[in-house]
Specification:
about 260 residues, alpha/beta
Amino acid sequence: MSRVEEAIAARTAVGSGALVGYLPAGFPDLKTSIEAAVALAENGVDVIEFGLPYSDPVMDGVVIQEATQQALANGFRLQHGLEAVAAITARVDIPVLVMTYWNPILQFGVDRFSDELLAAGGAGLITPDLVPDEAHDWLSSSDRTGLDRVFLAAPSSSAARLKQSVELSRGFVYAVSTMGITGARNDVDSAARSLVGRLRAEGATSTCVGIGISSPEQVREVLGYADGAIVGSMLVKALADGGVDAVAKAAAHLATGK
């Protein structure tokens, strides 16, 4: 069992489910993004999803797009993300997954990136625009290094695609709660519950739901039927509005409802 799956299983075993927190590397600057990620770990988040800024973030909503564009404007480079992962994992015990679009990894070199991510203490990758059919190099490299690979599943996915995502994901399957881009919503689409059920029917043992989760009530709702809840835009907005202290308070609020 991978480190990520172990962390999620430990939470589900006690009946609470896991909280996965997303923040972008390099926002508002590299040092602050490291401190903010550490604050997540210190305030109830079980797995960190650390995003690498990219020039064409097709899945991201306005809050995350603005943050990642600021990071790029400040000179963020992929190597900075690896340095940040190393700095975070030197200070916290929870797993750090990197969320990245695939083109930067191709440009950097798949095996080179895998080796450097492993050396930095990273747990693996979430790849929103990489489908298993096109992931041969990543499958091979992650098998060699033991890194987790998290593929996405959507409500529109066919049974065959869900089965493939379940069989090839390691750590968890990322269940997209609704069709569209990331961003806080007043309610989490009911399609998420159905999607998790379909993934379980295909053999999934670790499924986390993301996109649109922004309150402790939504976290509890999702954890009533899934193994983990993923929160991003709400935490990024807290960082943008109030810095690391605000991120710490937001994470604690999500984790405890207080």
